[in-house]
Design goal:
92 residues, alpha+beta, Phenylalanyl-tRNA Synthetase, Chain B, domain 1, three-stranded antiparallel beta sheet, 33% helix
Length: 92
């Protein structure tokens, strides 16, 4: 399964790649944050940097290849939650 940072980006619309409701997403997630969140959730993954979604070819944020342990929306919610936790911990 492929997870793009735009799948979790609150600033994106559903049409431009966001897969979850805005309340469950994060602002401008980075590939390294996605990778750290997947590692914290014990999900096997591989980060592929500097690649662009075909629809937004000018944004080269990369993507994550994830072994599919659960359904994609459930995995995206877990990743977004973990990123929010890590960001709040970094602020304090």
């Amino acid at each position: 399964m492929v997870v793009w940072p735009s799948n979790l980006d609150a600033s994106k619309t559903r049409r431009t790649g966001r897969k979850l409701p805005k309340g469950q997403t994060v602002q401008s997630p980075r590939l390294d944050e996605l990778s750290e969140a997947a590692k914290a959730l014990s999900v096997e993954h591989e980060a592929v940097p500097a690649k662009a979604r075909p629809r937004t070819w000018w944004e080269r944020g990369g993507y994550l290849i994830v072994d599919k342990p659960v359904q994609k929306p459930e995995l995206l919610r877990s990743l977004a939650s973990e990123i929010r936790k890590r960001r709040s911990k970094d602020k304090s």
